[in-house]
Amino acid sequence: MGIIRAVTGAIGGALADQWEEVIEAGNMSDTTVMAPGVKVRAKDRRNQNTRGTADLISNGSVIHVGQNQFMMLVDGGKVIDYSAEPGYFQVTNTSVPSLFNGEFKEALQETFDRVRFGGVSPQQQKVYFINLQEIKNIAFGTTNPVNYFDNFYNAELYLRAYGYFSIRITDPLLFYAEAIPRNQDHVEITDIHKLYLAEFLTAFQSAINQMSVDGIRISHVASKGTELAKYMSEILDEDWTQKRGMRIESVGISSISYDEDSKELINLRNKGAMLSDAAVREGYVQGSIARGLEAAGSNANGSMAGFMGVGMGMQSAGNFMASASQTNQYQMEQAAKQRQEQAVSPDTWTCSCGQKNTGKFCSNCGKEKPQAPQEWICSCGQKNMGNFCSNCGKPKPQEQTCPKCGAKVTSEQKFCQNCGEKLH
Description:
By secondary structure, the chain is α+β, with helices and mostly antiparallel strands. It is built from nine helices and 19 strands.
């Protein structure tokens, strides 16, 4: 028994009139991984199996395969023919397996050779459809914190992540043989995902560790869903793709939280980074003084008592505050000076080798600094910077030396302006 492509011209509004049985996929939502084939107009008296039991598919029946559906003709629990191409296919007892591979090329045929039915006396015939669309919205969450070494914080941090992932079935025959529970006709992703969630979370831990090695900051993990999916696809390639015919398509992290120790370390590091700026520290010092004066003014015993307390406090802590402020001012001045020194000088020039220099010769290759073009006035009165006059097109006069006195002259001069010697 096998299938052949049906004549599409005969398929129309009277399906039950043209064929013994017409079968198509049952209820298949975006979370369905496998659905059974159901008869179109099953209660019509003209659409009855009159050649055997209800578990047999009549010779000449037609199976309708839709887009992103993989149809399997199953005999005694084993696949005897299939189609990965949309269209209408007729069941015939005289046909050998046709194996319509579609976009899967020859890969499906190799799997078929391993899982196909080897007998000739079937007890049960059924049609099943595997969903080839992306199976979305599979929820996951880490029950225990996942360790993540962050190079920016230089610390081992711990996070919890919650979100959703999606899978895609890449080898429907292998998926049917290895992932679908036996004696089930309709399978939702929620029926099987718990079996593989532990493997997913293990791969998630490995992927998180790889992201850590690659230097991705922990605060950026939530926005790296695409990269995370690639990491996990590589990790799960053997266990999921090669053994079960499915792969991770995408991973979306909806929330990330840190344990208390990690929060404390992150906050401490962020405060330290802020206070390393002298301007921020100076603002903090001045703000502390202002808050102290404000508190003194609202003292319950009277503002005078409050200001006396402030005076005593400032007298004891004054040296420290003054010293801190002076240090801040000095560091701000040094930072401003450094920025000024780092600013590009008008004398800075870039050599053809790429080295920036300030002297007359390149510090990298030794080439001389190129001379900037000098302005010259043509005999027509036009000022120019190039080698030719922009008004009359005359070439720039060449500098020469007077043969008598050695003074510098131009090629346009007829007499030396120094000694009067005739030049040409």
